[in-house]
Design a protein that fits this description.
The structure holds two protein chains of two kinds. By secondary structure, chain A is mainly alpha-helical. Chain A has helices spanning 2-27, 34-40. Chain B is of the alpha+beta class. The chains are: A mainly alpha, B alpha+beta. Chain A binds chain B through residues 1, 4, 8, 11-12, 15-16, 18-19, 22-23, 26, 31-36, 38-40, 42-43, 45, 47, 49, and chain B through 34-35, 38-39, 43, 46, 51-54, 56-60, 105, 108-109, 112-113, 116, 119-120, 123-124, 140, 143, 147, 151.
Chain lengths: 49, 728
């Protein structure tokens, strides 16, 4: 019973971390070009220009 | 930059300046198919020292490039991309940034929150259900309920907003839609669960409410995305036509401006082959104007100084200067837009099936819940709190989860299938309207035909005559000359050919002048009974040779019309072209009902007439003269070669030369309609079983969760049959 008091918030925190990561990736435009992202991994040159 | 590859636009007009001093420009790049193209373009641009950033979006075919230096560099950059073999067109990201994209992102965020919350609350709920069997104490249960409430309340407040908003909009105009029972169900379930949590009750429905929101958001997001993709593709086609015009200033200087910046009185230059940007009057030059997209006329008309030219037509033969006479609301275009708006207002009264069902469903469900509450309080010793609990469980169990998925699931799959076959579905309700169609009305030029004439068959020409004519024809952009050229592509290109716009071509040789052109130009005796477009080849000392042309039908037009008739549909042709041309096509295709010389308003009137007799008309057209009819018909389709405004007015756009997509579209729509009805049937069957249980108070949260997920899966599974059936 006491364990729950730690475990549930811990589980929720981890879940929120995932949710936050998703929302961040959405905001930073990582879902704007899904077709392109699939292809870019095959490019040779790694410059960020 | 060589003259023939000169871009239509001056790109520096589209340059923006960013805060860090960089110049930026967005381009639409057509012809990108794979990652290789992306890499090629990005590499070519990044190799230039001034370029700070170049990034191609493969999904939207957009290129964003930022560089240090003058605006004029824009033209070099665009030319560099064009040199790789891609067509580039500037576009304004602010104008292109669509509301649809923002809505899609909001749905995705709501979906993420709902998914997170639903999963966590479900975990807690499973513990409670397991605890009920294992003998969990009430204190632990209450703690778990409190945690559920903590997650569910903010999540529902955030994630269910799209439903609240839509429900509110419907209620504000005193109507009801599917979102009204959804909103009421979710809100009541949450409120009651909170109340139960506070008084230490046994059953809370946070998981049901969240699962409901999660499932419905999935349906809503998929629906949006499928249509958003189609819309993006359609707008990409449109943007490729975005024009800039070359203005000639008083001092004779030339500059490029965007066509929306043109003002009456300005003198605009149109090179041969260029599209006329606005309505105007020719001040200098003599040329031929192809107005097939505007009036449906298949042959070009000759214009000279003083004649009117209209936006959207194409200048074929020689350079023209024209003074802008009308912009904005005064143009022919605006007149047609007004006709269209009128027609669209009429059509927007169409209510889709889901909302029609909701109209009866919502009152029935709410009535049933009320009856449950009153029944338990009046006719039994049950305390009112428990009666309310039962009433709310009726609302939860009847919450149109499956209904909310029944239509979008089918639509997503249907529009995905159509998209793979080159048909873009733009309107949400188009499939439903298509399924009802019993009459198909075609425009002729550009719809049944490919809008390009071709050399008529059955004329016994001496190959040498044809080769000579074709070598002269190479000098002209006139549609008939191009057709000759296509008939004899290997003929050498004659040098020194002079074109007299509106008359023909002539070539001076040592033996005398060779002429290719109209009957009068070649001095042939008048009328000999043969009609239709023609060219004559006249040589000194020899009888002139006639080349007759016909319009080329789309390759599968005959089969398509036959297939439509085989499905019991009535087929008609409404064309703006001259009588004989329309009669020929109608005869060739076996269409009995046709009208020629129709003005846009007449086309609309004919459609209204048909609809008055109870017919549901699918209008297929491409010209500006079809646009009002496209908007007026119960559903409409246009080829991707159509003018922008027609593509906007149409519910669906098909690509390619074949006409078969018309049949495919109708078939898919009918199958989809059947599946939607089956899905509704399944959803109602589920309700018929679950509702009595809820009314009797037998639905626990566990039962509700199982029933809801089960019915949703069933409906989605049924929708998937659409893909399977199509592969046969």
């Amino acid at each position: 019973m006491n364990g729950l008091l730690y475990l549930i918030p811990a589980a929720l925190f981890l879940g929120l971390l995932g949710l936050g990561a998703f929302l961040w990736s959405l905001r930073s435009g990582q879902y704007d070009d899904l077709d392109g992202a699939a292809q870019r991994i095959l490019f040779d040159d790694d410059d960020d220009k | 930059m060589s003259a023939e590859s000169a871009p239509a636009a001056d790109f520096s007009a589209f340059v923006r300046h960013e805060d860090d001093g960089l110049a930026a420009m967005n381009l639409l790049v057509e012809g990108i198919h794979c990652g290789g193209c992306v890499q090629k373009i990005e590499r070519a641009l990044k190799a230039r020292p001034e370029v700070a950033q170049a990034r191609v979006n493969l999904s939207t075919r957009r290129l964003a490039v930022r560089w240090r230096g003058p605006d004029a560099a824009a033209n070099d950059l665009a030319a560099a991309v064009a040199a790789l073999g891609f067509a580039v067109v500037p576009f304004d990201p602010e104008r292109a940034a669509s509301e649809a994209e923002a809505v899609e992102k909001e749905l995705l965020r709501a979906l993420a929150v709902a998914g997170f919350a639903a999963a966590n609350v479900m975990l807690l709920s499973v513990s409670v259900w397991a605890g009920a069997v294992e003998g969990m104490g009430p204190a632990t249960r209450d703690l778990l309920h409190w945690f559920s409430a903590l997650i569910a309340l903010p999540a529902i407040a955030y994630a269910a907003r799209p439903f609240y908003r839509s429900a509110w909009r419907a209620l504000a105009v005193r109507r009801t839609n599917m979102d009204v029972p959804i909103s009421v169900g979710v809100a009541l379930a949450t409120a009651m669960s909170l109340f139960e949590t506070m008084r230490g009750g046994e059953h809370v429905y946070f998981d049901s409410a969240l699962a409901l929101v999660f499932f419905l958001l999935i349906g809503r997001y998929l629906d949006r995305r499928a249509r958003g993709k189609a819309r993006a593709a359609a707008s990409r086609l449109l943007a490729l036509r975005a024009t800039a015009a070359t203005v000639i200033d008083v001092d004779g200087g030339r500059r490029t401006v965007r066509s929306d910046a043109l003002r009456p009185g300005m003198v605009v230059f149109a090179a041969a082959g260029e599209r006329i940007a606005v309505d105007g009057r020719v001040v200098e030059g003599r040329s031929e104007i192809d107005s097939s997209l505007i009036t449906g006329e298949s042959l070009p008309a000759t214009v000279a100084a003083g004649d009117a030219v209209f936006a959207g037509t194409i200048n074929l033969a020689a350079p023209l200067r024209y003074a802008v006479t009308a912009v904005g609301p005064d143009t022919l275009l605006a007149e047609i837009v007004r006709l269209m708006e009128l027609a669209e207002q009429r059509r927007s009264r169409y209510v889709d099936l889901a909302d029609r069902v909701a109209r009866h469903y919502a009152p029935a469900v709410h009535g049933l819940a009320l009856a449950t509450f009153l029944g338990w309080t009046l006719f039994s010793a049950t305390p009112w709190q428990v009666a309310l609990l039962y009433a709310v469980s009726v609302l939860i169990i009847t919450c149109p989860c499956a209904l909310g998925l029944a239509v979008p699931a089918v639509q997503v799959i249907a529009s995905g299938r159509l998209m793979r076959r080159g048909t873009l579905l733009k309107s949400a309700t188009a499939l439903e309207r298509l399924a009802k169609v019993d009459t198909v009305v075609f425009d002729k030029t550009g719809t049944l035909t490919v809008g390009r004439p071709m050399l008529a068959e059955g004329q016994a020409h001496d190959p040498a005559d044809l080769a000579l004519a074709a070598s002269l024809a190479a000098a002209s952009r006139h549609p008939l000359a191009l057709a000759l050229r296509r008939a004899a592509p290997e003929a050498p290109v004659a040098q020194g050919v002079a074109e007299q716009p509106g008359s023909g071509l002539s070539l001076k040789t040592s033996a005398g002048e060779i002429k290719l052109g109209s009957r009068r130009f070649c001095r042939v005796a008048e009328e000999d009974g043969r009609d239709g477009p023609e060219l004559w080849l006249a040589r000194p000392g020899r009888t002139p040779v006639r080349f007759g042309f016909t319009e080329r039908l789309r390759p599968d037009a005959t089969e398509t019309i036959a297939a439509l008739k085989a499905r019991g549909l009535q087929v008609e042709i409404l064309s703006g072209d001259r009588r004989p041309a329309v009669a020929r096509v109608a005869w060739a295709l076996g269409v009995a009902t046709w009208r020629a010389g129709c003005m846009p308003a007449e086309k609309c009137a004919r459609l209204a007439e048909l609809e008055k007799t109870g017919r549901h008309v699918l209008m297929v057209g491409d010209g500006l003269n079809d646009a009002p009819a496209l908007a007026a018909a119960s559903v409409s389709l246009s080829p991707s070669s159509a003018i922008d405004i027609s593509q906007n007015a149409a519910d669906a756009v098909f690509q390619g030369e074949a006409l078969a997509p018309v049949v495919t579209l109708l078939d898919v729509a009918r199958r989809a309609e059947r599946l939607v009805r089956q899905n509704f049937g399944l959803a109602f069957a589920y309700n018929a079983i679950a509702v009595p249980l809820a009314v009797l108070g037998l639905v626990t949260p566990l039962v509700a969760a199982l029933a809801m997920s089960g019915s949703s899966l069933l409906v989605v599974g049924n929708a998937l049959r659409l893909t399977r059936g199509g592969r046969r």
